[in-house]
Specification:
Number of strands: 3
Oligomer: single chain
Radius of gyration: 25 Å
Number of helices: 10
Shape: elongated
């Protein structure tokens, strides 16, 4: 393959383009050591070494270092590695490696988030949050199933009542307009209309 460009990323790193497409990022010292030059050729053997050994080891270590400080979903880790210009195959390898040791578990992550957010957010809000974190529908369903088995899911009617208390809402003294306003607030929170109507007394 032909090295069509080498673009500086920082004082120590640069992106290497093969056949006009971004291939990977290396330290400048590595580029010099392997004699990688613009318009030069890169042998298949050297490319395999870079992709299958050098970058894979580096991406795996990057994953493990990230996971030391906090939990990540597969999607979040992939995003972090993409920021480092790791190739897709290298990213998949590194994430599979971390997952094989139990360091990445999207169901476990979702379950922990459900426990954490369940006292302040509706199920709909939580599911939307988890989708944004890249967790699959199946993993979310499995997480909720485990939470239900362990009886750790907050009752939505109780949660609505807590929010109404926090908002200093007085159902008996409220006007129709005030009931509409608080109902709209709860709709935005993702609660079901029947539970909202029952708690707010909108059509009484």
């Amino acid at each position: 393959m032909t090295v069509t460009d080498i673009v500086e990323l920082s004082k120590t790193r640069a992106r290497v383009f093969l056949d006009n497409e971004t291939a990977f990022a290396l330290y400048k010292s590595e580029i010099r050591k392997m004699n990688i030059k613009k318009d030069g050729a890169l042998s298949d053997e050297r490319l395999r070494y870079i992709m299958d050994e050098l970058l894979v080891k580096r991406a795996r270590l990057r994953c493990l270092n990230l996971l030391k400080s906090r939990d990540y979903t597969r999607h979040q880790l992939a995003g972090k590695l993409k920021q480092g210009f790791y190739p897709e195959t290298v990213i998949e390898n590194a994430i599979a490696y971390a997952a094989s040791y139990g360091y990445i578990d999207d169901v476990k992550y979702a379950k922990a988030y459900i426990k954490y957010a369940g006292s302040a957010k509706s199920k709909k809000q939580i599911i939307n949050d988890l989708y944004k974190k890249g967790i699959s529908k199946q993993d979310i369903e499995n997480a909720y199933m485990q939470c239900e088995e362990e009886n750790i899911i907050a009752d939505e009617e109780e949660l609505i009542e807590k929010l109404l208390v926090k908002k200093h809402y007085n159902r008996n003294a409220s006007t129709f307009e005030e009931r509409q306003k608080i109902a709209a607030f709860l709709y935005r929170k993702g609660f079901s209309s029947d539970k909202i109507h029952k708690s707010v007394g909108l059509y009484e």
